[in-house]
Write a structure and sequence with these properties.
224 residues, mainly beta
Length: 224
């Protein structure tokens, strides 16, 4: 019975990965189904397939993210992973990014509220496939704080703020470059399936031509 249930969830996940259609609001729409497989109570394999759209119909980014997480205790977790990213035209080496990351996170509860903090270090290789100097990564330090409310059955509203700080830009000084504000809610369909909807405002600063984006996102999370 358990095997059949896992096969059904896996088939549903693959269906959503192959049909990344979406509608837009304002600038962008993000769609990201993810799959988590428990190797043990503490250790999980994670996979996410993301699609990001612009101009109401055009996909401008897609990525495949492979990760492994380990829950140390009820308050602390560590993780690491690799993300392969296509920007713009698929199969064009100039539009491929490779990203490696490690992070640590902590969370605590106070009544129906949960507070969290995640710190991530990532190395981004933009020209790995096209330049002799492509092995030099762009290093980024990311900090995300979150507050969620657990007092509603099956629904978890939350707010997040995440700050991106470049640790190098191939010779330039350290500076903060991007910030994201999230407002969203997750709905637990079952123990194995969760759907989430969020709005995100993203802006750049300390750069010559900063970008400002409004994003509506849809997440589908499957657990095995």
């Amino acid at each position: 019975m358990m095997i059949k249930k896992r096969i059904y969830i896996l088939a549903l996940f693959l269906l959503f990965c192959g049909n990344g259609m979406a509608q837009y609001w304002d600038n962008q729409q993000w769609f990201a189904p993810s799959l988590k497989y428990s190797l043990s109570k503490e250790l999980k394999l994670e996979f996410e397939q993301g699609f990001r759209f612009s101009e109401f119909s055009q996909i401008n980014t897609s990525y495949s993210d492979f990760g492994l997480s380990y829950k140390i205790n009820k308050h602390f977790k560590i993780a690491g992973g690799y993300r392969h990213i296509y920007r713009g035209t698929w199969n064009d080496p100039d539009n491929i990014d490779d990203r490696f990351y490690v992070d640590g996170s902590t969370e605590d509860k106070n009544g129906d509220f949960k507070f969290g903090w995640r710190m991530r270090f990532q190395a981004r290789f933009r020209d790995w496939h096209t330049s002799e100097m492509g092995w030099r990564p762009q290093l980024i330090w990311r900090n995300k704080v979150s507050v969620s409310y657990k007092g509603i059955d099956h629904i978890t509203p939350y707010i997040n703020i995440e700050l991106f700080t470049r640790l190098n830009d191939l010779g330039e000084k350290i500076y903060s470059q991007q910030i994201r504000y999230y407002l969203g809610a997750d709905y637990e369909i079952s123990k194995e399936v969760e759907v989430g909807l969020f709005y995100m405002h993203q802006r750049e600063f300390n750069c010559k031509n900063p970008e400002f984006n409004h994003v509506i996102g849809l997440n589908l999370n499957f657990s095995l």
